[in-house]
Amino acid sequence: MKWLRELQRNWEGLAQADPLYAICTDPRKQNRQWNKEELFATGRHEVAVVLGCIGQVGICVDRKSPVLDFGCGVGRLTRALAEHFPECWGMDISPTMINLAREFNHDVPRCRFVLNEKDRLESCDDNYFGFIYTSIVLQHIAAKYAIQYIVELIRVLKPGGVFVFQLPDGLRESAIKKLRVKLAIRARVQSLLGIARPFSMEMHCISESKIRSVLRNSGAEVVDVRLTNSVDPSFCGDLQYLPQEPQSGYVSKQYCVVKMP
Questions:
Q1: Residue 8 CA: distances (Å) to CA of 11, 168, 200, 210
Q2: pTM of the predicted model, to two decimals?
Q3: Residue 193 — pLDDT band, cuts 50, 70, 90?
C-alpha cells in the first residue's frame, strides 16, 4: 500500500536524522541534544499522569495483563509502563526506532519491541491487551488510516480493557491560516532537522463526534475526554491537561475508552 510505504519512509527518515527529537520536538533538544535518560524521565512522568487520570474517573486497569504502547519510538513510554505492568509491548513502523528501543531497553526484560509494517496488527491476537496507550502518534497519520488503526487497537483489547489515545479534534483558525500553519510546521521541522528530502511531521485531525461513532461501532465506550498540550510544536514530554480549548491552533484531546464485554 502506497500510503503505508510512504508513512514508513517518512518516519524512518526522521528516525535516522534525529530519533529522540522526532519523538519530542523541544527546540532546545534539536540536533541530537536529547539524551535517553532525560527522554525516559518524561515517559515516567507521562505514564504517571495518565494512570492517575484513569484512576480519577474511577476506571480500574488490570495490572496483570499485557499492555501495548502503539507508536513506541525508542520506548520512552514502554519502559515507563514496565514499572506498572508485567508484559509491555512497544510497536512502531520504523526499523531504526525499533532497533534503538531494543538497544536502549535491553535491561528491561518486561519490554518487547515489535516492528509493524502492516495496516493491521497481525502479530497481536484478539482480546490480548488489558491496557493500550498511544499519544502523539495517530495525529501524524491521515484520518482514514488512523481510524483503521483505532479499530485494530480495539480488536486486540480485552473486553473490559482500557484504551487511552490522543488526537487533534481540529484547528481553530481561518482556512488561509490553517494552510499557512500546516505548511509552516512542515517547513520548520524539515529545516530544524536539516533534511534535504521531504520528510515531515504532518498533523491530521478527527472530530470527537467521528471518534465516538467509530468507537461505538467497534464495541467500545468513551468514558473520559481531556484537553492536552500534546500538539504543542515544542512538546517536551511534559503532558498536561488544559482547562479549556486554546483560542487558536490545534485542539488536542485525550480519549479514555473501555471495550464492552
A1: 5, 21, 12, 26
A2: 0.91
A3: low
